[in-house]
Amino acid sequence: MANTASISANVAGRYAQAVFELVREQGGLDQLSAQVESLGAALKDSADLRTLITSPLFSREEQEGAIGAIADRMGLSPVLGNTLRLMAQNRRLFALPQLVDRLSALIAEARGEVTADVVSAATLTAEQERRLTETLAQKSGKTVKLNARVDEGLIGGMIVKLGSQMIDSSIRSKLASLQNVMKEVG
User: Fold this and answer.
1) Against a cut of 0.85, is the pTM above it?
2) Those residues with Cβ within 8 angstroms of residue 179's Cβ, 6 or more apart along the chain or in another chain
3) Alpha-carbon distance 71 to 47, whole Å?
4) Regarding predicted confidence, which is higher, 2 or 166?
């Protein structure tokens, strides 16, 4: 499984770099960013699209026709649309989720942005999100985008991942630490 993920990441990385360079030369990073976001949402929301890109039952021609129609319907740029068609011709559509991730990362890097993954016990208010974003921006020196989700199992607090740093202030982790200390004593 790790080997398959590595292959997908390598394939997607090459396609993403090519798309990114072409679009950056044309000055269309903002448009590409919006299209990549839409494509990522479509992958997340559509089981049919996920089946199309992973199922070996579809021929190259069927995949190319379907992904081409999707690209046209979504109004994707010729560079991105043609890349998706090329991926279908080469039987590489399985790497589409990694392509979306890599393109997002390249665009964010070019803009000086970083994404912080935040898991909290309860939904953050707009004020909490604003304050957290400001604090993380000061620490990192970059524009921060939050990727927030809720995990009620944390009991309270939150876990923040920013690049290679992780801050775990959840009640669940504090209880686990306390439990370990108690085991050592007893």
Assistant:
1) no
2) none
3) 17
4) 166
